[in-house]
Amino acid sequence: MERCLRLFKQDYFISEINTVTVEKRDHQQPFPLHNHDFNEIVIVCSGNGLHHWNDYVYPITSGDILYINPKDVHGYESVNDLRLDNILYLRESLFLSSTIESYLPKVTARHNERSWRIQPSSLKLLSPLIEQLDIESKKNNLASVHLSEALFLQLVILLDRIKQAPTVALPTATHQLDLLFTALHNSIATPFNIDVFCKENHIASRSLSRLFKSQTGMTITGYLQKRRLCDAMSLLRTTDYSISMIAAECGYDDSNYFSSVFKKLTDQTPSEYRAKFNDKKE
Prior knowledge:
The chain is of the alpha+beta class. It has helices at residues 97-100, 123-136, 142-164, 172-185, 194-201, 205-216, 220-238, 243-249, 255-266, 270-281, and strands spanning 5-7, 20-25, 31-36, 39-53, 56-61, 64-68, 74-89, 115-117. Strands 1, 2, 3, 4, 5, 6, 7 and 8 form an 8-stranded mixed beta sheet that branches. A hairpin with a 2-residue loop joins strand 4 (39-53) and strand 5. Helix 2 (123-136) runs antiparallel to helix 3 and helix 8 (243-249) packs across helix 9. It is globular, with a radius of gyration of 20 Å. The chain starts with a strand and ends with a helix. Keywords: Activator, Cytoplasm, DNA-binding, Repeat, Rhamnose metabolism, Transcription, Transcription regulation.
């Protein structure tokens, strides 16, 4: 595995008895690959960027929820007005562990079981809890530690409840976004036509495009391109597929055009990108 920074709990938790804390990143800058000796829930509040997570790379934007384990290696790049609420917690030291565990992904959960999206409107439900948790977690008396865990329990229950809520209960605008994200995630290797999608789902394409841009800071085409290139980055790092095969897997019929777009985003050709990671593994 390539080298990465190691972050330690004593640099973030104010005392040895504190088990939960909040790190707000109102202007998250690019951050190199790192891991830490604590668990973390990352809530993407606004903006966008690329998230490296073990051998996966993909765009993140408003509403993405990530559960990071201590052994995970992750980092951020190509950020654009990215704002995060990071909830750090010591999973094995929680006083309310037996209850909280019921609402967290299992320790052995796969990557795709520890990342999902909530509707942007649901972020407003989380905000008051996070604000109160932020205040209490900066105190080191036992009552505040217990209250912090109680607030954290409320937060993970609310996240789980939002995740389990039926799609039909979602507001119209956010339901449209949810349908669109699902369609985009299923269109990595195949063409995507916004007009066809909107016609099939009885949605006005112009208003959907405006809504998407206001919530993510990206155009629909720009997001899909980033998503495809992120999949290509993962394949370059983890397989020996040819460049033309990877281009086809990621929705590009022309491997030369794929290489041109890839270099524009990363300042490297696909071959240079692959070589960089192969060198680190040696």
